[in-house]
Structures are given as structure tokens and as C-alpha cells.
Write a structure and sequence with these properties.
There is one protein chain. With 389 residues, the protein is α/β, with parallel strands linked by helices. It contains 11 helices and 11 strands. It has helices at 3-22, 82-87, 147-160, 176-191, 216-229, 238-241, 272-278, 289-294, 301-321, 343-346, 359-367, and strands at residues 32-33, 35-37, 55-59, 68-73, 98-99, 118-122, 168-174, 197-203, 263-268, 328-332, 374-376. It has a 9-stranded mixed β-sheet with strand order 2-3-6-4-7-8-9-10-11, sandwiched between helices. Strands 1-5 form a two-stranded antiparallel sheet. The longest helix has 21 residues, at 301-321. The two termini are 39 Å apart. 46% of the residues are buried. It binds 2-acetamido-2-deoxy-beta-D-glucopyranose (NAG) (9 copies). The site of one 2-acetamido-2-deoxy-beta-D-glucopyranose has 7 residues, from loops.
């Protein structure tokens, strides 16, 4: 074994061991899913940042789920220049298995509405929310910026393998993958015209511009650089790019209104990642801000006010988009980023609830039209630690 292979093997064992430790609770080790590399995508120029082929993780559907399909887009942030992209893990050379939890779980008790669906998780290896499209390969760094082609190649593969004949379809993603879900929702809908029901769920992808809060210029200029570097403009809806700078068209507040396919927004109004990384407190509240975002009990009143201000802006931004009955909403005040793949966060006694529904109940009710779901936590105007110890 080479040293690298050994490290990978150890990591694999470690993941296995972690899952085994959890077995008593509810997991089974076969919730770990290996990657499959899509070699045929290379000929289409659909490759990861380092030129390696794209990959996916797949679990076959069964029973009454055999003809239902979920496509899951994971998160991982973005990169905006050569230095940042070279550090970003954009490769499938040593692709590790992933754990299918939460909405991906095959356990009927955890995931009663979707456990037996066909579930495909696309590997996120392009750092552009599956939207980049640069023809040229950078000579100096060998960077390939081809996220849109990766999405297309993986989708085409699965259309041919049964997705085209699906009855129920759902595009789901978290974080950068939640944003990818919003960006690709209508395009994806158009690829499965024969499906009787197609809906999209974006978890923790509602990154706000928050023009009134510190750091707005950085938030805007970062997205502009991402759009420029990956040549994303062509992947963005013209309904947005015709009105404003394409960089602003990565903010869901400028996109959601025009998404035609039913869309569910799941997010915290005190999103942990946005508060930790994208929003700065006022200078007076900056000392030990990072500590506060790791342990809410030590936050100063000024720091908690920063979180309340974020929440107010978040809810106002949502309100400005307007309400539409096909849109699902589940906006809580958990100090959390990413819910859907975490079983404890989406189901069970300890999981956060709104309207007495867990996240998976809410999504199931909305998806199957059992009820409208328009849940916003208006009671808690402070961040709650929803992580069970
Ligand atoms: C995943 O790959 C590992 C290592 O190659 C192998 O031992 C395991 O059986 C595979 N699991 C599945 C479900 O195919
Ligand atoms: C690349 O982007 C990162 C993140 O925005 C930034 O910190 C860094 O200065 C940039 N590097 C160059 C060479 O522009
Ligand atoms: C879709 O269904 C048709 C008719 O049953 C069948 O001929 C075709 O092979 C199916 N396509 C896929 C991709 O499963
Ligand atoms: C949709 O169904 C029709 C009729 O069965 C078929 O001709 C067509 O190819 C299907 N479209 C797709 C994209 O699968
Ligand atoms: C940018 O993307 C568009 C399609 O969206 C493509 O036509 C154009 O050639 C791309 N530009 C570069 C420099 O690759
Ligand atoms: C803040 O966090 C840093 C790094 O984790 C730690 O060294 C330091 O003691 C913490 N300070 C306070 C006041 O909690
Ligand atoms: C958070 O800070 C409090 C007060 O300093 C401390 O008692 C507690 O152990 C800390 N919690 C964690 C998880 O570090
Ligand atoms: C939330 O509570 C858990 C368990 O007590 C703790 O580990 C974690 O640090 C807390 N998170 C924050 C942001 O306070
Ligand atoms: C909330 O839901 C639980 C489990 O679904 C149920 O047992 C309980 O009665 C419900 N509570 C209220 C107030 O509706």
C-alpha cells in the first residue's frame, strides 16, 4: 500500500468505526455509500477542478419508491481565484464514501416519505454550485472550471438510467448545494417533463446580501469574483441578469421570485455559517466573536444583538420576496447551518419543530400536497442551540 492509500484506508475504517459507534442509536453501516466515477463525462469536458472525472453516490429505490428519484447536491462553499481554487478539494482522485443520513436515510423510521426512493448524491467538485463554464484550462494551474457541465453530465447519465421515466422527482441540496438547487431547479424540471411531480428543496442556501449589515461589500464582491472566475453568467437566469450585476444573481433573494417549480426553503434565520463567516459584528463587538459563534452562552449582549439584527434582516428579506402557496417555508431560529442530512436535526423527539412538525414531516407534507407549509419561528428572536449533547 502506498502511504496515501493507507491513509485513505484508515479514514475509511474510521468512518466505519464512527458509524458503528452510532449503531445502537439508529444507523446501519450500510448507510455508507461508495462513490462511482463517471469516466464517460470526461469526453464531454465535464470534469472537476483538477480535471478528474465527476462522481456520484447512489442507492437504488425499492417497493413503492422504485420509480421515485431524489437528486442531492451537497455543499462545500465556493472558490473565487486560482489560490483559493487550488486549495479547494476539487478532485475525485481519492473520493471517500459518504454517509446517507436524514433525508437520504434508508431507514423508514427516520425518513418515512423518501427512504425507499432512488437517491443520488452528486459529488461537489467544481466549487461553483454546479454552474461554472470556462472552456480554457488554465495552463499554469491546470484548473478546470466546469461545474455546469458536471451537473449536465451527471444528470444525463441518470436520465438514461431511469430518471427520465420517474413518477416523483425531487432536487435537494444544502448550503452551496442549496444555492445550486435554487439555480438549477427550473432547468432540472425541464429535463423530466414526464414526471408527475417535481419539486426542489434548498437547505441553508438562502445566503442574504444584508446590505444594511457590516461586511456587505465583501459579500457582494466575493460573489462577483466567483461569477467572473467561473464564467457563471450564462448559467444564471436572464430574469435576474437583465436587471442587475450578475454577481448579485447568486443571492437567492434575487432568484427565488422567478423560480417556477415548487421550491421549499429550509433555513435558520440565525444561520450559523452566515453569522460566522459572512457577517461581521460591529467593531465594538468583534473581540471573541468567533468564541461566541462556538459557544452561545459566552456571547456579549452586543454580539447577541448582531444575531438579532441578522435575523430581522433575514426575515425582512424573505418577506420582500413575497408569499406564494406552492413555496414551502421552514425557517427556525436554531443556530445551525445545514439540516437535511443530519438525522437528529430532521426527525425524532429532540429535533427542532415548527407547527409541531419536524423538518422531514414538513417537507413530506409539502411534497405530497398533504398540507401547505409556511412555518416561520416568530417566537424566538434569539439564537437557540438546537444541538443535543
Ligand atoms: C465500499 O468500498 C469498500 C472499500 O473498497 C468495500 O469494502 C465495501 O464493500 C464497499 N461497500 C459497498 C456497499 O459496496
Ligand atoms: C483569493 O480569494 C481569497 C478569498 O476571497 C482572498 O482571501 C485572496 O486574497 C484572493 N487571492 C488572490 C491572489 O486574489
Ligand atoms: C422508460 O420507459 C419506456 C417505456 O416503458 C422504456 O422503453 C424505456 O426504456 C424507459 N427508459 C428508461 C431510461 O428507463
Ligand atoms: C415523455 O413521454 C413521451 C410519451 O411516452 C415520450 O415520447 C417522450 O420521449 C418522453 N420524454 C422524455 C424526456 O422522456
Ligand atoms: C462562458 O460561458 C458561455 C456559456 O454560458 C460560453 O458561451 C462562453 O464561451 C464561455 N466563455 C469562456 C471564456 O469560456
Ligand atoms: C477564545 O477562543 C480561543 C481559541 O479557541 C481561546 O484560546 C480563548 O481562550 C477563548 N477566549 C475566551 C475569552 O473564551
Ligand atoms: C461554554 O461556555 C461556558 C461558560 O464559560 C462553559 O461553562 C461551557 O462549558 C462552554 N461550553 C462548551 C461546549 O464549551
Ligand atoms: C450547543 O450545545 C452543544 C452541546 O451542549 C455544544 O457542544 C455546542 O458547542 C453548543 N453550540 C453553541 C454554538 O453554543
Ligand atoms: C405534536 O406531535 C406529536 C408527535 O407527532 C404528538 O404526539 C403531539 O400530540 C403533538 N402536539 C400538539 C400540541 O399537537
Amino acid at each position: 500500500m502506498t502511504q496515501k492509500a493507507m491513509v485513505d484506508h484508515l479514514l475509511y475504517l474510521l468512518i466505519g468505526a464512527l458509524v458503528l459507534m452510532n449503531t445502537q442509536v439508529h444507523c446501519e453501516s450500510n448507510d455508507i455509500v461508495n462513490a462511482t466515477i463517471l469516466m464517460s463525462a470526461v469526453a464531454k469536458g465535464a470534469v472537476c477542478l483538477d480535471g478528474t472525472p465527476p462522481a456520484y453516490f447512489y442507492r437504488k429505490g425499492s417497493g413503492d419508491g422504485a420509480n421515485n428519484w431524489m437528486v442531492y447536491l451537497p455543499g462545500g462553499g465556493w472558490c473565487s481565484n486560482k489560490t483559493e481554487c487550488l486549495k479547494w478539494p476539487g478532485s475525485t482522485k481519492k473520493v471517500k464514501p459518504v454517509y446517507f443520513g436524514g433525508i437520504l436515510s434508508q431507514d423508514m423510521n427516520i425518513n418515512p416519505d423518501f427512504y425507499n426512493w432512488n437517491r443520488i448524491q452528486f459529488k461537489y467538485c467544481d466549487a461553483s454550485s454546479f454552474t461554472g463554464d470556462v472552456e480554457a484550462i488554465d495552463q499554469e494551474t491546470n484548473l478546470h472550471l466546469r461545474g455546469a457541465r458536471v451537473f449536465k453530465a451527471l444528470t444525463e447519465e441518470w436520465l438514461a438510467k431511469g430518471l427520465a421515466n420517474a413518477t416523483n422527482v425531487m432536487l435537494v441540496g444544502n448550503s452551496a448545494g442549496g444555492l445550486a438547487t435554487i439555480l438549477n431547479c427550473d432547468r432540472f424540471r425541464a429535463l423530466v417533463p414526464n414526471a408527475s411531480r417535481v419539486k426542489c428543496v434548498a437547505d441553508s442556501g438562502f445566503f442574504i446580501r444584508a446590505k444594511n449589515l457590516p461586511g456587505a461589500e465583501e459579500r457582494e464582491s466575493y460573489y462577483s469574483r466567483v461569477v467572473e472566475f467561473h464564467n457563471i453568467t450564462g448559467s444564471l437566469p436572464t430574469s435576474c441578469t437583465s436587471k442587475m450585476d450578475p454577481g448579485l444573481c447568486l443571492f437567492p433573494e434575487n432568484l427565488v421570485r422567478n423560480v417556477q417549480t415548487p421550491l421549499f426553503l429550509l433555513n435558520s434565520d440565525v444561520d450559523e455559517y452566515q453569522l460566522r463567516v459572512k457577517v461581521k459584528p460591529h467593531p465594538a463587538d468583534e473581540p471573541f466573536w468567533q468564541n461566541c459563534t462556538h459557544n452561545l452562552t459566552i456571547c456579549t449582549s452586543g454580539q447577541l444583538q448582531t444575531m438579532r439584527d441578522f435575523r430581522t434582516t433575514f426575515l425582512k428579506t424573505l418577506e420582500e420576496i413575497g408569499y406564494c402557496s406552492s413555496r414551502g417555508l421552514f425557517i427556525n431560529s436554531c443556530f445551525i447551518h445545514d439540516f437535511l442530512f443530519k438525522s437528529d436535526m430532521v426527525t425524532g423527539n429532540g429535533a427542532p419543530r415548527l407547527g409541531n412538525k419536524t423538518i422531514l414531516q414538513a417537507i413530506g407534507d409539502w411534497y405530497f400536497d398533504r398540507s401547505l407549509v409556511h412555518e416561520i419561528d416568530t417566537k424566538n428572536d434569539y439564537p437557540i442551540n438546537c444541538t443535543i449533547s
